[in-house]
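A favour, since you know our structure tokens better than I do. Go ahead and set the record down below.
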Amino acid sequence: METGPSTPGGPAVVLGLQRLSFAYQGLLEIPYDTILQQHDTLEVLDLSYNLLD
């Protein structure tokens, strides 16, 4: 499996998919600015296990 950087909130490439993960970070708001910076190539967005309403 091909993987890229695994820093939280950082992009990673998994099996050719551009993935952005914010999982398990206790977020109260969606980080729109960071997400929009990746909008041209982003295919998978993980916001699981946060405190979002």
Q: What stands out?
A: Helices lie at 32-37.
